[in-house]
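Quick question, first post here. What does this chain look like in 3D?
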Amino acid sequence: MSGICLAVRRAGGYDDYRTDFDRRKEFDVMVFGFALLLAAGICQGSFGLGYKKYGPFSWAAFWGVYCLLCIVVSAAAAWILAPQLWEVLFRNGGQDLLLPVFCGMLWGISAVGFSKAIDKIGMSMVYGVSMGISTIVGSVMPLVLSANLPRGGDAALFWTGLAVTLGGVAVITVAGIKRDGGAKGSVAGIVLAVISGIGSGAMNIGFTETQRIEEELAALGGSYAAVSAARWLPVLVGGSILGVFWCAGELSAKREWKTLIQKGSLRRTAILFGVSIVWYAALLLYGLATEQLGSMGETVGWILFNALALVISSGIGILIGEWKQKHRTRRILLCGNGLLIIAWFCLAFVQ
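> Answer (accepted):
Ran it through. Tokens below.
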């Protein structure tokens, strides 16, 4: 009887139909994942625009308020989207949260460098250097930690992509030094951008180490958005709390607390609240995208996430005049960006 049923299924093309249906479904899921990545890249590439001005705050007041708002936004989103999170988070003592929190603290320190680097060398250049380094750290280290480095033919493509990424960062660095004439602030800004890239990559390492939260929330019926918000929480809160303490110390040392109550402080706080929402939206959407892109989502997704953010930030930097009347150095910048994008698409095809 089973043989007759099998013959009927094959004669009717039922198995082929199911295969085609499954393929279309997988394709639709992938397209949706890349659409989420595009939205995430737009948010990630544009939120740094909010760092260009911080008056009437001092820098420490500006960054301290921003870090506090980041805690509020990420915790509120996790509480709203995943109310069952709190019974999951500290199960088994929460020892597996130590690495995500530590990675978040590395990001918290490096985020200080990101903000100050934009002040020194501009948005487009900081994104170029920072995103290049972040791509290497955030995509390679999770593979190393999971002993899942590519082998065979993929290995050559993988290491070539990383080498071209480093080349792109070098070209962007040259563009910045030529634009600023080798000024001291330019060199310091590049160093800060490199540090921020290392910390930004550490964020993704922390995110990949929260699989237990993902599995337990999914078992409780949590949505993709709930899982993404929950997985980011220990990383983002760990880094933001460190940023608040850092800024509180600097405010006390420089006696700048009064800048928090100067005229215009409420308006600046409102702007920072908007910036923190855009920043968080980038990470939440990235987390959603990784769920759609399968087993390599956290590696391939991170690569493309950074590539999209770089394109957006470079365009914004040119539009707001960071490279005005610097046509030759702007071409060098665009060549560096082009190298990064080529390298990252090569890396994206590594299985």
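The radius of gyration is 22 Å.
Residues 2-348 form one domain.
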